[in-house]
Amino acid sequence: MKILVPVKRAIDKDVKIRVKADGSGVELGNVKMSMNPFDEIAVEEAIRLKEAGKATEIIAASIGPQQATETIRTALAMGADRGILVKTEGGAVEPLAVAKILKAIVQAEQPGLVIMGKQAIDDDCNQTGQMLAALLDWPQGTFASKVVLEGDAALVTREVDGGLQTVKLKLPAIVTTDLRLNEPRYASLPNIMKAKKKPIDERTAADYGVDSKPRLEVVKTVEPPVRKAGVKVKSVAELVAQLKSVGAI
After folding, report:
1. What is the pLDDT of residue 189?
2. Does residue 182 sit in helix, strand or coil?
3. Which of 50, 83, 174, 213 is the residue whose CA sits 20 to 30 A from 222?
């Protein structure tokens, strides 16, 4: 069974985000970029399934600029077998266009399972996995904290507001990963060297007949409000008075 893992190039999680002076977006110049953390978890889960004998090949796919090759190389160094880069021009590609491109890749590669991050930390859309499942008419298990393959089915434990929910999906299926699914491994130096020789197939959105032009326009981007300093109180009565003064109660 093949496993397809979409991976996104995003601003590194440890970088302090800076908004452009004109408010047109986030500053990307000279900023460290890395694989989206939720996608790292997806790659790790795919590798564990392969190590357990449940899969035979892992394909890492990324949609974005030429620099996204680095993101694919990271997945290959972790243990993926080959990569697919779909090059796009301009800024970020919106979730629906990504889902349409991934649908075309799925139809070409015929994987038995697609594992992907539940969301990207740059736009927080949490839409691509669900859209891909709808376009393919495949079952989906979102926010997964545990994945178990049993024959032609997958048992996915989901993190929901009320606790945990386990769903049984008939393969092929879409799974989106949550933080507690696993701890991604670090790529060893020998594997990083081996990754340089693994194949990456380069395509464009047009090759798949998909128009990746954005449908949305970012009107303005602003910094979050600065958090004000707290106030110490000496009694419950004073606390209640403070809360009333700010309209909290």
Report:
1. 94
2. coil
3. 213
Token pair in block for residue 82: 């080959």
Contact 72, 7 (CB under 8 A): yes
Contact 46, 82 (CB under 8 A): no
Q: CA nearest 86: which of 111, 61, 106?
A: 61
Q: pLDDT tens-digit profile of 167-206?
A: 999 999 999 999 999 999 999 999 999 999 999 999 999 9
Largest CA distance in the chain: 69
Helix axis angle, 95-109 relative to 128-136, nearest 10°?
A: 50
Q: How far apart are CA 135 and CA 132, in angstroms?
A: 5
- Altogether, the residues listed in the chain come to a count of 249
Phi, psi of 65 (to 5 degrees): -75, 175
Q: What is the pLDDT of residue 134?
A: 98
Query: What is the per-residue burial (b if ≥16 Cβ within 10 Å, else e) of 178-200?
Result: beebbebeebeeeeeeebeebeb
Only one residue has tokens 């380069």, namely 202
Quote the tokens at residue 133: 């499942």
Q: Helices marked H in the chain — which ranges?
A: 37-51, 68-78, 95-109, 128-136, 189-195, 236-245
The type of residue at 42 is A
Cα separation of 215 and 146, whole Å?
A: 35
pLDDT tier, 30 (very low <50, low <70, confident <90, very high otherwise):
confident
Rounded distance between C-alpha atoms, residue 45 and residue 25, angstroms = 33
